[in-house]
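User: My collaborator and I are trying to settle a disagreement about how two of our proteins should look. Neither of us wants to argue from intuition anymore, so we agreed to look at predicted structures for both before our next call. Could you fold the first one, then the second, and keep them clearly separated?

Assistant: That sounds like a sensible way to settle it. I'll keep them separate. The first protein:
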Amino acid sequence: MPISGKQQELADLLVAARRNASQLSSLPDDLVPATATEAYAVNRIVAEQLGWEPLGWKIAGTTDGVRNKLRLDGPIYGRTFRRFACTSPARFGAAELLDPLIECEFFVTLARDLPPRDAPWTLPETIAAIGEVHAGIEVAECRYARAALPPMPAILADGSASGRYVFGDSIENWSEGLASIPVRLEVDGALRREGIGADVMGDPLRPLWWLAEQRRHWGDGLRAGETISTGSMTGMLPVRGGQHVRACFGDTATIEITIDP
């Protein structure tokens, strides 16, 4: 799919920001993609130009609260990169993070491809492609400064603020259902957010089905080995240096992150 000169210009800016771990202080209006389709095309070009090994995809906007806050009509998504994946307990320096937001999610890794095809995927077919599920935290980051965020299509072009991915324990009984698993998010020992799997589109595996359909229409599908973060059950919680984050997924898994000053 050919892209315009403006789309390429935006992609170049986002590639440089990714490589330099920096933010754009502002974005000219004429570089904001006109549509979500144009924005996702920019995200594809950014990933291709970076040449980084993909981790998979992130999905956001999967709860009513997040969609209302971001003024979204439905979910959004973006490419993620394996170099930003790690396991709990994790430690980051505050200076290396870009306006970090903590999001408690399920990380779903595929065992089989969900390739492009004419017929729509069904939810059972999508579930059958799953290899494993982990408790996870995305430390979302944006290449635009939070104080000067551009319109949503520019954020989609940035991979919907894809950031770092902290893997917790494997959810061994995931096939029995994720909707009933509660999540508690604590910062420095104080409860800050609570949620449950069902908050994410009724079932955290439904966003995966949605993404499989999105990528089927794009003509590339989803691939075995890719990990998809299926959307936050605890919203988007800003964190800062000197804080310790702990997330409990029922009595099944715990994830811990320390943000050094």
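The second protein, kept apart from the first:
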Amino acid sequence: KGCPYDNASIESFHAILKKECVYLNTFIDHEHAKSVLFQYIEGFYNRKRIHSSIDYMTPEQYENMCRAA
């Protein structure tokens, strides 16, 4: 058995994914849902959305800062 806190980060991600993407869209079929979710995660969440865990920077900004250091 695992500790419930081991899953906290993925539960937080799923909550954000549902609030910011899933509940705002109507999916036609599985392929449409897959495409919309991919666009949200790769195009917005991982590139443009600020994250508190990296000092309210976007992942792209944080990566560029690390590469410049």
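Some points you might bring to the call about the second protein. The two ends are 41 Å apart (CA to CA). Residues 43 and 49 are 9 Å apart (CA to CA).
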